[in-house]
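SEVERITY: medium
COMPONENT: batch folding queue
REPORTER: lab tech (J.R.)

DESCRIPTION
The queue accepted two submissions in a row. Attaching both inputs and their returned structure tokens so the on-call engineer can compare them side by side.

ATTACHMENT 1
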Amino acid sequence: MATLRFHTIISNDLQKYKNALLCLGTGLGSLEVISVFLRSNLDADAKNLWILLNFSQQEISTLTSLFEVVDIGSEKIDSRSREITYKKGGAVHVTGRTAVTDILEEKIDPNKVKGIVIHNVDKLGSACNEMFIVNLLLEKNPEISVKLVTENPFWVNLNDIKEFGISKVLCWPKSRYEIAEELENFAGNWQKITLQPSGAALKIHNLLIDMLQVCINEIKRSNKNFDLQEIDLQSAVLKKHYQILKSTMDFKLRNLPSKTKTLCDNIEQVRKMLKKLEHCDSLEFLEYLLRFMKFIREQVSDYRASEGIWHNMENETEELIKVARDRVIKIDENNVNFNLSPSKKWETLGKMVKNTIETEESGSILIINPYSVHQAYLKQYIVAYLKGTPEVILEFKLKCLLESFNPLLTYESKNQLIQEQLSNMLNELKSKYEVSFSLHPSESFPTPVFNKELDESDLILQEYVLDSFGYSWNDFQVPNWDIKILNRHQIDNFMNINPTHIFICSYDLSLIRKIEIYAAICRDLEFPLKNVVLFAAPLYENLLYSFSQQAEIAGFKHLLTCEIPRVISLRENAAKIIVDKREFSSILPYELYKQGIRVIPAQLQVGDYILSPSICVERKSVTTDDIFQSLSSGRLHDQLIKMKSYYDRCVLLIEFREDTEFSLSATNSRSIACLHLSQLLNKIPGISLLWSTSPEQSARFFLKIKQNQPDPILSEALHKGCSSSDALSMLPSIPGISSENIHIILQNFASISKIAQSSQSDLEKLIDPKSAGLIFSFFNSQTVSHRLN
């Protein structure tokens, strides 16, 4: 796929500075810039190694279509294969966890690394494996270049990323002359269609916006000792309120007042309803709303839920349900009629697609629908519309609604005549859409909950049923036409389709800019793009679009005027802690590193962290449910017994995270865990229990426990819990031991401890000097890094 001239200009700008943060306007093509940058560097010397971090799999797939990238992020790729890949050089994508262990185990030669490119830097926290990696490599090779890239300047906090040591912030908004000039003229005819919402839809939208505003005002009122003026409708729509609360109140999210946290949850719930209103027909929105209210009413005994808007704005909530119901159901003199009209957006889309097919002989149509949850629904609607039977989709959804709920929820539901009509209507729809199977959430997918997808089960059922009635997207074909429907996660690959017509179902800033770039490429390459249609409505997405533009401008303005924080110098003579390799999926090893600890990775059989020859820590995370699973399976019992067998001081660390409540019994389903844990500790006396609110706090606790304690001995830690055969099976993970020399090692050493006790000269008598040096260094010097003070 081609790039534009301004991508090369930005790449050249990035090339000028050793350590820089590149901030692009959203949707302007960060992957294209990175591809141009890598090509120019690796064309000069293909043996240089560029490490790519924090890319999603979809982004790596797109980047690979632009430039050759080797992806070794999969856990299926063994350490030996990764080491060979690093030695070859080129652009290599790897996960943060894998890169940390490979650096500490010396599988990556820092002197071979030319640079590091970290994408989506706005999504990184103040402690992450990416920072760990950069600091580890820079300590060994200060000449390594670090490039940070983001398309979301509004979210970048320079203090959070100061340890990357950036010296320059490069800002490239769309208004820059080099970009604006190239994007002035597009290929194809561009058309924006503004769909006016019905009065009922507009009223629902305004009710929901009012609820957002109530949440904002209540957060400010209940935290009046703090300056929270920055929290407004814009921050709530853009989900910036969390960041403002954390920075202003100097709290982690777990320590926010209960009411504030509930109101933050309510903001997310209302935001989702606003998106549903924009993209669903009236029938689907009503069903979703009824499901959600059922979910809320079941939480009536939850003290946190009672602090939110749904239990304290009952009149507004009832009004919301009434308006949503009235735009679907009409009752006239005891007669019930349902409005089975599709959403205006999809109805207009269907008409335009059909008209395009009928008026032109051939072509390729691309429909971009941002939300994957509606993908199957939209595909079947287009099939039904082109077949001339769009009512089938809505009738089936009405059947689902009547089977699940009494949609009246008022005195009318007591009217026997009305109830009979509803019953007759349901029976008629059942006979029309009779199916011989049913899906149950427990069998095919997780039980839906509001915070994920309440409507997931019905969408899956609908897809299966309507496919069986001849509305399968995969089986539907229009002669001489190729029709594709992609969601937000698939959009980066659309350029390979070469569409003649593009229909964008979302007024989204990033999507629109990506299409503008594609249209500019089509102009230069004379691709046959004829028509681009944007659908817009004066509802939530229009608000989101406007706020996104304002936020981007504010973000660039802030980055251009603020001072870049400076990195502090290194600390020498650090204490050591041995860390199990599997722990590098958490950020605790990096927090230890930040506290001045030298982190030594190992494949441990006993414990997760060895603080001294006599102190062992087993870490359990509440966030990942590790503690609950270990308790229920009995694995924790076995782990503690094993620890007691080998160490004098055994610690069980139960660790929380900033966005989790500091309580094991936060929910009824987990409250029994406290009982099981106390019974286990009574059964195995001598285990110290350490509660930590965050990895950062855990690191501070470790420092206190290590005071005046000797450093752990790696060979001893590796040998504990292993039989001789088990220990020797770990040999391939030790630097210097390879498939070529492992048989010699096995013939001459009965245990790992024997290897560790050998001198370098003894090892050189058996294997080559370089491998001998790596093995000796691994067991004796543990050459891992220090941190920034």
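ATTACHMENT 2
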Amino acid sequence: MEENIENPQQPQPQPPSAPASFSTAAACPANLQTSSNDAAQHPSTSALLSQQLPQQQPGRQVHINPTPRVTAFSAEPSGLGTGHSDLMSVAMSAMLAQSQAARRARSEPRDKRPNRVLFCLSINNPIRKLIIKLVDRKPFEIIILLTIFANCVALAATKPYPELDSNDANLFLEKLELVFTGIFTLECCLKIIAQGFVMDPNAYLRNFWNVLDFIIVVMGLFSIALQSLLPKSLDIKALRAFRVLRPLRLVSGLPSLQVVLNSIMRAMLPLLHIALLVIFVILIYAIIGLEMFSGKLHGACYRQDHNTGFWMISDEPRPCDSRHPDDLKGWGCMGVDYPEAKSDENWTCFDANPMDKDWRPKPGITERWPGPNSGITNFDNIGLAMLTVFQCITMEGWTDVMYYVTDSTGPEFAWLYFVSLIILGSFFVLNLVLGVLSGEFSKEREKAKKKGKFHKQRERMKFEEDYNGYMEWILTAEDLSDDEGEEEEEEVRKNAIAEFDSMAKSEGEMESAVEPSWWQRNSRGFRKWNRRSRRSCRRCVKSQAAYWIIILLVFLNTGVLASQFYNQPLWLEDFQNKANYVFVALFTFEMLLKMYSLGVRTYYSFLFNKFDFFVVVASISELLLTETNLIPNIGISVLRCARLLRVFKVTRYWNSLRNLVASLLSSMKSIISLLLLLFLFIVIFALLGMQLFGGKFNFETHKPRSNFDSFWQSLLTVFQILTGEDWNSVMYDGINSSGGLNDATGVLVSFYFVILFICGNYILLNVFLAIAVDNLADVDNTSDAKKDASDECDKKAGAAVSGSGANSGGVGSTSVGGGPGAIDKLEEIGRVGEPKVFIADSESKPNTDDETSDAEDVPVTSARPRRMSELHMKQKVQPIPEASSFFILSSTNSFRVLCHKICNHSYFGSVVLACIMVSSAMLAAEEPVNSQNNRNKILNKFDLFFTSVFTVEILLKVTAYGVIFHRGAFCRQAFNLLDMLVVFTSIISFCLEYVSQSEVFIMLGIGLTFIEMSIPHLHHP
């Protein structure tokens, strides 16, 4: 069909709108990709094409190849006519121009600047324009980050000294701090001028990170001004440590860390609800402790000096009960645990509580003991009571507090108070934090996945829309092609075919003229042999035998490595070295065999193969360096640790363990991001601890190892507090170093440790558990999905087998593809006789918990059709097995039937359960200290009675169900074996108790002699 383009009656083909986005590399070059937002700001491709298309002359037609290559747009598309390559080149140039314009638009700042800032600087002000250009430059941000890092290094290099002492290095760092403060102040001012202060939606203080920077800068300027005006005032430069949070502005742009941060931020509201619940529980228990134990932890043991008459406190005081000996319930200082009591029994428990005047010691008291942990652990007021309860909830040192209270008040109610506190507060309430974080992390990850899928789907839809538009444009242009163009293309095609045929003929003549050489003839045979060998090696490597051989070698290697010990004999060390050579050789042979069978490229495409290669190379390097003595012994010890990596080879053969390792590796991205966040958190609190407690942990009696006297020691101390190990002792030292309970500063510093423990241990460290739980849940879901798919395939296969059997099965059927089970079915069906109904077995349908499988495949010899309720009725009574019991009692034996009825009677189980409960209560009533008292003798009689009852129970069940040799026997269940073990142990204990030791040995000797005489092959020659 041929029509003139200039004909006004014919509609002109219009190119489609510009592509919004090309997300497929095969459809458009990478440099031509655009976004939908940018495409809206620039002229469309159709407009550009209408401006740049050459004007068509009269009589000139547009013709395009009927089969164009539409999978990729290029400047010279294959198969297009010579007269129309300019059309596609113009289209590509238009798209290139649009892409360049989009890149220019993306390079411009996206945030709209306010027209006026600080009520004086407009958008056209030259100074503000210069500042905007400076702030938006990448080097400016890099300089600020380097300054932040340098400031952190300067803060870490500071060496705190007690009593505000300093050295030259600290003085230099303090002067350098002025420079840092000036740089950050300048940055703050420049950003305020560029973005505005607070009124505009995009102003400086409308961003969280900018608010944090502004507060830090203001605090820094305030501290400098305060130091200048009042040199001896308190230095608050510890707030500058929060400047290390600034790099989070860039790190939060990473997808993995963004998921972690968003999870923590979104979890703040649920965590606030949990915090209110925790505070409520702490407050309730603090009030109860205030009512019950107020003033009870100040009593201590005093000894009266005969020379002076004064009362001297013990060297290591502990709480005691200061009541009258007649009312004494706790610990009463009766010379216990004190060496001086052996020579002097004049000890008295004394505290400041009101007591009977006759009981109060009249001579003077040299000192009053404040209580355990310098008086911090007590219930004297609501603040200290809440702090003590919080310490107990963290489960660090709670037993010491419980025993302090027990010694001072008695054991009646103290254990109930603290046990209920641990169960309710620690086991229940605080673990809700993990649940909230795990749930929020799962939601955030799912949201990120859905967001990524949505973006991919949107890009795909945009590309398909643009692709369909261009296809419609090309197909419309095809309708306008003329016959002349087709004839020209046909001629070009014929010429190309003729030229190709001539080239093929010439190549064939050349090949026939050259005969294959000897190497070419033999290389073919070698290649065939090589392929067969690699195929055989591949089958060998993937065989079940190779699997178990590698597993055995790994466990043997593990046993050899575990056999090492200090000061071992030389022969054992020689054996271990030779075994190491053997294992290295075997694992090297395995690696080379896999490389040959799979190919080097395929071998390295698997992660576990890379791991095996690293282990083998490390082992060979260790052997070479050990034999040549090129490195010292410490280096050899480090290299020998690579042997331990061989143990992890078992992960590739253990499916569940491999899935677990894969889940952990898949979560490494989020874990690494969380580690960065955790490290910044530790650095912040370490620097803050240096400012608060640096040089202060110097006590008269001791200097604790956990201190804040240097940056590295502060890091270690903060990490110790995060793990919860002995964090309360560090808090006690911090409170005492800041003035103790008599100073307000000493009370306030306790919030540092509480906040550090809550934010670090209960939030950040629990995020690790949330990530692990989320990934393990994904592994479980994947495993369940695979199991469901496998079950579905099995069901379909079983349905296919049963269908084929139904179609081809009959009396004369002799072969069934369903296996032995199907053959048995057909044999039953093919028998001539009465019709039979079969109860469905466990493989065709899932059983419930109460259903049993003992009656599977049991024919019901009845012609009457049965109801489904009769066929599938739950059977609570286990039937008597068909096999004989003790090889003499058949299933119809009257005594066996009687035992079976007794065992399945409703009263029998109730009686046994009651005996178990009563026996357990009597075991708990025994007194282990004085085992020969009358109560224990009576309980032993009852123990003998209950042992007899349980023995009779086992005998009845063994008689009814058999021992072990058939299905449904008594010993085929694990709980029955446990019952038998308990009964036999009780019988043996009674025998050892009532029979003398010599008689036992005589009985054992007679028994062994009888066994030896009964079995002929045990006789010695």
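NOTES FROM REPORTER
DSSP finds 34 helices and seven strands in the chain.
No errors were logged for either attachment.
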